[in-house]
Amino acid sequence: MSGNPALLMRLVASAYSVAEKAGAIVRKVLHSGELGIVEKTGANDLQTLADRLAQKSICASLSRRFPKITIIGEEDLPFEEVQEDMIEKGQAEEILQKSCPEEYRAIKEEELVVWVDPLDGTKEYTEGLLDNVTVLIGIAYGGRAIAGVINQPFYNYQLGAEAALGRTMWGMVGLGAFGFQLQEVPADRRVVTTTRSHSNKTVTDCVNAMEPHEVIRVGGAGNKIIQLIEGKASAYVFASPGCKKWDTCAPEAILHAVGGKLTDMFGNPYGYNADVKHMNSAGVLATLRNHDYYVSRVPQSVLQALKSE
Ligand code: AMP
Ligand code: MG
Ligand code: MG
Known about the structure:
The chain is α+β, with helices and mostly antiparallel strands. It has nine helices and 13 strands. The protein is 31% helix and 21% strand.
C-alpha cells in the first residue's frame, strides 16, 4: 500500500520495531550479568532491570509517536525522563505495505488501548530458560484484542553464533499472522501446555481432565501461544488467576488471526478496554482448534474454584 497507511498499520509497524529494540535491551541486561531482581508480590512474581528498561523504551517510544493512545504496561514505574537512546523511531516497512482490514481503517488514536508486557517469563529469564522469554505488545479496539506483536529475544540461542538470534511475530485479526510457520498438532493428539512455575491443585486437576497424551510445562504466556501456533501443543490450559491482560492481549490477537481462540475456563472471552480489571481471574484456555472440546472437559470443581468475570 502506498500513500498514507491507516493508523493501525502504522501502530503495528512501530510496535514491531519497538518490540525488537526491547528484545535487544532484554539481551543486553542478561549479558551485563546485573539483573537487578526485585520481588513484587513474592518470590514467584519478579521484576528485573530488563523488565523496567524494556517497558520504559516501549511506552516512551509508542507514546511519543501516538500521544493519544492509552498504553498500559505491566510494571509500576516512577515517572522519569527517558533518555533519547531508549526511543525507537523505526517502523517495519513490510507492515506499512499491507492493506488495513476495512473495519479498522477509520480507527482514531483515542479508541485504541495498547497492553504491554515488556518481558513475559521473567522467572524463566532469571533461571536461564531463555527461549521462554517474550516481549508482548497487544492492541485492543472496542474491547477486543485485534493485533499483536511478540518478540522472542533468545530464539535460536541454543544453536550458537551461526544462527540469527531472536525473532518477531505479528498478527492482525482479518489480515493474518506473520514471522513463523503455522503448524498444527495432529487432530487425534491432545498435547496440553501449562505453567511450570505457577501451578496448584486446580491447575493440575484441570490439565488431567483434558486426558492429554502429553503435557508440556513451560514458562510465559507468549511462549505457550508460540507452542500452539507452531504445532507443539494443542491447548494452553491454566485454570487459575495469575495471568493479566498484558499477558494475553498480543497472544490472543495473533491466535485469533490464524483461527484460534483464547477465553477463560468457562469459554467466555476477556475484554481489553482501558478500564477492565488487569487480572484474568477465571483462568486462560487457548487453542488453535477444537476449543469447545477443551471447554467441555473443564471439571465443575475447577469452575467453582474460579469466578467468571
Ligand atoms: P506462567 O505460565 O506461569 O509462565 O505464567 C504466564 C504469565 O502469567 C507470566 O507473566 C506470569 O508472571 C503470570 N502469572 C501466572 N500466575 C501467576 C502468579 N500466581 N503470580 C504472578 N504472576 C503469575
Ligand atoms: Mg507476563
Ligand atoms: Mg512481564
